[in-house]
Every structure is written in C-alpha cells, then in structure tokens.
Write a structure and sequence with these properties.
With 324 residues, this protein is an alpha/beta fold. Helices cover 41% and strands 22% of the residues.
C-alpha cells in the first residue's frame, strides 16, 4: 500500500500545473508588477502551506490503508493437537507425471489444503533426495508453513537419490522435547529407496515413540520423468521409468504401528492420514501467541481528514480584517 505514497507527487504536480495556468491567465491582463497591487491579500506562503496540508493528508490516508497494527502482548497458550513432521521426497523421480501435473506438485497442493484446514497441530517440513534437511522446524504458524511448502523443488537437494532412512532420522530429531504431545512422521515418496536402510531408521523412530505414516505417490506401472521438457534417460540411453515401491513403505509403517496409503487420482491420502492421527491420539502443547491486536488505522484516517479539511478551509487570500 505504501506505493500509493507516490500520489503525493501527483498532488504536487497538480499544484505546479495550476500555478502555471494561473500565471498565464494573469499575463493576459498585464505585467505582474502592474497587477500585483490589485491582488491585495494574496499570499504565496498560504498557498504552499495549503499544499503541505494536502500532502500530509494523502500520506496519512495511505498509512491508514496499510492497516497498521500493534500487538499488545505475547501470551503462552495451551492447545490440543500433535506434532506432525512432513517428510517430502524431492528427488527427480517425483517429477514423473502419472499424477498431474506431476507427483511433487500434487503433493504440494495436498499439503497446502491440509494447512488451510489445520487449527491446533504443529507442523514441520523435511525435504530429501540423496540427502535430507529440515526445511521448516516445528511451528504453529501455518502462513509461514505454506510459504515454505510453495518453495519446495528438486533443486533444494543437490545430491540426487532417495535416502528414506536419513529422512526418517532427520525428521525424528526435529520434534520438540515435549513428552505430552503425540509425534508422527508422514512420509510422502514414491518409495524407490536407493541409499540406506530405511527399516532400521523406522525402528529407531519407534523406540522414541514416533509413529510413521507412509504415502506412496505414483503407480506400480510407473511413468517417465520429464526434466526441462526432455525425458530422463539412463547411462545406456534408455528412458527412465519411475515405479512405486509399496513394499518398502508398507514395512516402514508396520515397524511403528503406523499405516500405509497409496495415493489416487482423487486424493493423495494426506487428509485421511491426518484425520486418523487426530482421532487416535490426544496431546497438548504450548505456543506463544500475540494477544489483543490493536488496529491503528483510525488514528491515521482521522488525522488525515483533519489535514484535508484544514487544506480546504485555508484560503490563499488573507481576510479583510487581516489586510486592514
């Protein structure tokens, strides 16, 4: 909204233009030195002050449009809900198009929908390919979470591959130290693990009381991978086809008493898993929240109106009493 402050330049431009038009009209009557005595009471200073009032009025009204707010205090609240760590596969195989527009974009859309409907859960985000990183620590700020989800892309992890085991270990270490809230990892991948022992990582997570739910996105028949408009090929020049590996994902979920869901054209399965988690677990955690946001726009709007009325009420000519 502050770009509207350029309107002040428009006000100044109109003032200068009107001054030019006025001078040209006066020149039709005679030279300035001759007609000046006939303009008794006219003050150029008043004209400039009037312009200043209008500029201040416009600036204050723009500030009002920007809706300034003040958070009066932070408060700690206790809310129900668990902690969910989303581990999203960003390897090149997630660009396969057996799900439109591709597996990764479909996953991002499902996560965005989930965040729109979430209220109490705290969420975090891990991205992985040949390596794994915490992209977003556990948070209750869904607006920030959505911005991080929108930015997910295969370029986030330079090393290609699918290190599911490392993704589980990184996600498991990203939870808070709270012992009261439930903790769950939701792993979204095509299941083609090429790097490590994912089953052992799942056992380590189970020992820490973490449940893993797995979502297989893709089809057993597979689909080619398109990168930059070209189909991906192996070292022999043959087209690479990425297929869903359900066996690995089923075993990971079973190790932690979780569940496995295969995505369909209608649903990735994320909402169904989160619904099941909420029904089967209860937990509470604390969160810091701003309380009593104060709207300040009325002050700026009121001050702007005062300056606007003052500008309109201020004449460029002094009153007859002041002239005498």
């Amino acid at each position: 909204m502050f770009w509207l402050l350029t309107a002040v330049l428009l006000v100044v431009g109109i003032y200068l233009l009107s001054g030019i038009v006025r001078r040209k009209r006066l020149e039709k009557f005679g030279e300035q030195g001759t007609i000046a005595p006939l303009m008794e009471g006219y003050s150029s200073v008043r004209s400039v002050v009037r312009l200043g009032f209008f500029c201040v009025a416009v600036s204050l009204m723009v500030c009002a449009l920007a809706r300034p707010q003040v958070g009066s205090k932070l408060r700690e609240v206790t809310v129900s809900g668990g902690e969910l760590m989303l581990a999203v596969d960003v390897s090149n195989s997630m660009l396969a198009q057996d799900f439109a527009p591709n597996r990764l974009e479909r996953t991002k859309y499902a996560i965005g929908r989930l965040l729109d409907e979430s209220e109490h859960d705290r969420v975090g985000l891990v991205v992985f390919a040949g390596d794994a990183y915490v992209q977003l620590p556990i948070t209750a700020d869904y607006t920030v979470a959505k911005s991080f989800v929108d930015a997910i892309s295969p370029s986030m992890v330079s090393r290609q591959g699918t290190a599911i085991g490392k993704a589980i270990d990184v996600a498991a270490s990203g939870f808070s130290s709270s012992e009261t809230s439930s903790k769950a990892i939701i792993l979204v991948t095509d299941g083609e693990n090429h790097e490590d022992d994912a089953i052992s990582a799942a056992r380590r997570a189970a020992e820490r009381g973490i449940t893993i739910y797995t979502i297989g996105i893709g089809t057993p028949q597979g689909a080619p991978i398109e990168i930059g408009g070209e189909l991906m090929k192996d070292e022999r020049g043959e087209m690479v086809v990425s297929k869903l590996d359900e066996t690995t994902l089923q075993r990971i979920a079973a190790e932690t008493d979780g569940a496995y869901v295969r995505s369909t054209a209608q649903s990735v399965g994320l909402a169904e898993i989160v619904g099941e988690i909420r029904r089967s677990t209860e937990g509470e955690h604390t969160a810091m929240m701003f309380d009593q946001w104060g709207e300040m726009y009325a002050w700026f709007l009121g001050a702007g109106l005062i300056f606007l009325l003052a500008g309109w009420g201020l004449s460029e000519r002094a009153s007859a009493r002041l002239i005498r």
